[in-house]
Design goal:
4 strands, 4-stranded antiparallel sheet, about 80 residues, about 35% strand, alpha+beta, single chain, globular
């Protein structure tokens, strides 16, 4: 089955919350879907990061990546932190 890589949209928030919470639990953090949803909502609303998802043709999200913009003074360039 093919997946589409695309920028996350508000309609993805519930599925992203589930995946992001599972990601945190993997790293031995306590599950907290309410805090995760608030965190993701703030990141998206403020444009603090870019979220991309891998979604199947039915819209089910199998994975995500969150990128944070940074700037290098010496290189005078913007780059992304994974």
């Amino acid at each position: 089955m093919e997946s589409e890589i695309r920028k996350a949209v508000w309609a993805d928030l519930d599925q992203l919350t589930e995946l992001f919470d599972a990601y945190r639990v993997f790293y031995e953090k306590s599950p907290d879907k309410n805090a995760v949803k608030a965190f993701l909502t703030e990141r998206i609303a403020n444009g603090d990061s870019e979220l991309f998802v891998a979604a199947d043709p039915n819209g089910d999200i199998a994975g995500f990546v969150q990128l944070y913009p940074l700037f290098s003074s010496t290189q005078m360039k913007r780059f992304w932190l994974l």
